[in-house]
Design brief:
Blueprint (H helix, E strand, L loop, with lengths): L2 H4 L8 E3 L14 E3 L25 E4 L6 H8 L8 E4 L10 H10 L3 E3 L3 H11 L4 H6 L4 H8 L2 H8 L4 E3 L4 E4 L17 H14 L3 H8 L9 H10 L4 E4 L10 E3 L4 E3 L21 E3 L5
Helix pairs in contact: 4-9
């Protein structure tokens, strides 16, 4: 565990590291101050007023597994104003790092953002519902202060429980947490929109004690990099042209692209508290514009 991981920060979530002093490691002198979203000012009209675009009309920014590194997330998104980008998080914002709940709040409060649920969010909600699961959750990077903070925030619990299992973007790109087709078990047997049926069934499971099944699907090993025929069947079943996912580190300096761009892994070990983090794990391995993947 890193020095950052060993440091005890009482009530850490809900606070943000200072915007000063970004670097390879969090500064020991970093100021902590309450995280509050900036007020959104209504447009007053006129030629200089900025017109807010709907999320589907904005260029898309993909963000891989954050795992509690809120300070690095601030750094990564400085060049991408929220009102100019549709930001899509692939899940696993929590665990390993000290600011998992802070990362959730930041993603929730960032305008024009979509957050897909990951296996670590499922494990955290499971531990919240069933204290017998706390030990397992902490063994995969869960932070005790995060659980206490989430427990005290009913609104955040409700928001997190409603996150979709996957989302299909306007250009036909499918975004999901892990790179396999286990989500197919949640498709409606009588047809209909496959994305809507998967999202609805996964959400129902999360609301009614179905975490074991969610965990099985969302924590499964990525397979699309090695199984192109299985990937193609999944794309056809979901009416998608490509799939973007995270979950398992790809260890490259840019997102890993497989099978002529049909499968893309954006888990570049973003969090400096992750056991697999290396100094050669740049932000660009996890944060990328959708256009750059085309």
């Amino acid at each position: 565990m890193t020095a950052l991981g060993r440091r005890r920060v009482a009530g850490a979530e809900g606070f943000e590291p200072s915007a000063l002093g970004f670097g390879d490691r969090c500064s020991d002198q970093a100021e902590l101050r309450p995280y509050r979203p900036k007020p959104r000012l209504a447009s007053s009209g006129g030629s200089k007023a900025r017109v807010r675009m709907a999320s589907e009309q904005l260029p898309v920014l993909i963000v891989g597994d954050v795992h509690g590194d809120l300070e690095r997330l601030f750094q990564a998104l400085r060049l991408y104003p929220a009102d100019e980008w549709h930001t899509v998080f692939v899940g696993d914002l929590v665990d390993y790092g000290m600011f998992g709940v802070g990362a959730l709040r930041y993603a929730r409060d960032r305008a024009n953002s979509t957050v897909v649920i990951g296996n670590h969010e499922v494990a955290m909600l499971w531990a919240l519902r069933d204290p017998a699961r706390v030990g397992f959750w902490m063994s995969i990077g869960g932070q005790e202060h995060d659980l206490a903070e989430l427990k005290s925030d009913a609104a955040l619990q409700a928001w997190l429980s409603e996150r979709p299992a996957l989302v299909r973007l306007h250009d036909g790109t499918l975004v999901q947490h892990c790179g396999h087709d286990g989500y197919a078990r949640w498709m409606a047997p009588n047809g209909g929109d496959p994305i809507a049926s998967i999202v609805s069934r996964a959400r129902d499971l999360l609301m009614h004690g179905g975490e074991p099944q969610l965990w099985d699907v969302l924590s499964a090993r990525n397979v699309f990099d090695q199984q192109p025929e299985r990937l193609q069947r999944w794309l056809e079943a979901t009416n998608s042209r490509r799939v973007v996912f995270g979950h398992t580190p790809h260890n490259g300096r840019t997102p890993a692209i497989y099978h002529d761009g049909k499968a893309i892994n954006v888990d570049g070990v973003f969090s400096r508290s992750h056991a697999k983090f290396r100094r050669v794990s740049p932000i660009a391995a996890s944060v990328v514009t959708l256009d750059a993947l085309s």
